[in-house]
Amino acid sequence: MAERILVIEDEQKIADFLRRGLTYEGFTVEVRLDGETGLKAARDTPPDLVILDVMLPGLDGWEVCRRLRAAGALPILMLTAKDAVPDRVKGFESGADDYVTKPFAFEELIARVRALLRRTRTVEETIARFADLTLNVTTREVTRGTRKIDLTTKEFDLLYFFMRHPRQVLTRELIYDRIWGYDFGGESNILEVYIRYLRTKLEQAGEPRLIQTVRGVGYALREE
Length: 224
Ligand code: CA
Description:
8 helices
């Protein structure tokens, strides 16, 4: 059964971004736009995890966090303002398990979400495989056959995204949304640049191409 995530966030743009991304990853997502109704939703049908914004109308995120915490051991991931260090301290004091600072890329968030959910689960899935590619999510090691491949953080995130959705055509829009985040605007060729980096590294020993271009749409991880 799909794990349930409750998102309590009053900013519609971010709430939609989270709903879209988390649904795509196979979670059941519920969104509440303020603290009161968020708290009620969490009590009525306890989710597997809560993503909680700090700045909310009415009851703020800290108060919601304290009340949720008092009610049980639900994992809570807080969304805080950029670089607000006192916020982090306050977050942990009110019982948050982890936090992500805004603005964030979806891949940063999903890594934290999975880590928190893993703590409450027994089965861990830390290795992703496709063809002769292996990606270890825990150690961040990537190999093709026996050859070890060094990737930057963004390259790793991009490859991991492909490996979670093998043989699917991922549109440029979706990839931007997921790897560069909701704050990433305008025309850019940064994705093409990163695809080129990845291909260069993955095909260094003359191996066949695994990241295919789907003309006019995007890219897909599949064998030629
Ligand atoms: Ca807010």
